[in-house]
Write a structure and sequence with these properties.
Blueprint: H1 2-46, H2 50-55, H3 63-87, H4 91-125, H5 137-155, H6 160-173, H7 176-179, H8 183-187, H9 191-210, H10 215-236, H11 240-250
Helix pairs in contact: 1-3, 1-9, 3-4, 4-5, 5-6, 5-10, 6-9, 9-10
Length: 251
Amino acid sequence: MAIQDAALAARIEKERSTTNRLKAFLSRYFYFSMALAMAGLVVWGFSRTVEANLFHAKPQRPLLLWMHGTAFATWMVFFILQSALVRTRKVSVHRLLGWFGATLATVMVVLGFTVSIVMTRFDMSVLHQTDVASFLSIPFEDMIVFGTCIALAIYWRTRPEYHRRLIFIASCVLMDAAIGRFDFWYNHSIFYAGLDLLIVLGMMRDWIVDGRAHKVYLYALPPMILLQSLAVYMWRVNPVWWQGITHAILG
C-alpha cells in the first residue's frame, strides 16, 4: 500500500512539474514563438504564388504591389523583433521601436485599401478577369480590424496585458493572406477560420498560464467573427447593395 501511495505521489509530482514547465514556457516564449510560426506561415503560403504573381509576373504587376509586400514583410520582422526585445528585457528599445511600428501600421492600412483597389482594377482591365470586384470586402475587412487593433494597442501602450494581445491579434489578422494561398482554405472560404485558430491559441495560452482567457480576446473575437462572416457573404454572394458600392469605388 505504501509503495502504491509513493508511486501515485511520484506521478502527481511529475505531472505538476510538467505543467509548471509548460506554464513557464508559455509565459515567457509564447508570443515570440508565435511570431516565428506566423513568419514561417507567411513564407510557406506566399512561396506558392509569389513567383508567378509578383517576381516573374507577366504582365508585370504595379509597383504599389511591391511596396505592399515589402511593408507586410517588414511588419513580420518587426513583430519578431519586438517580441524578442520584450523577452530579453530591452523594454526601452521596444518602446522606441514601437513608434516605428505605429508608423508602419498606418502605412500598411493605407496601402492595404489602396492596393486592393488598384489590383482589382488591374485584374479587370489588364487580366480581363470578371467577378473580382466583390473580393474587395476581404482586404477591406482585414484593414479595418488590423487598424482598429493597432489603434487600441497604441492607446493602451502603457498597459502591457492589453497591448501585447492587441498586437498579437492584429498580426494574426494579416495571416488570411498567407492561409488563402492554399487552395483548400481559399476555395472553401475558410481562411478566416485559420487566423481565428491562431487567436484561440492565444486564449489557450492564457487559460494555461492564468487560468482564464484575457478579456481582450473575449471582446475582440466575437465582433471579428461577425465581420469576417459579413465579408465572406459580400464576396461570395455579392448582393446588389455591395455591387453598387464596389462600382462606385472602382469607377
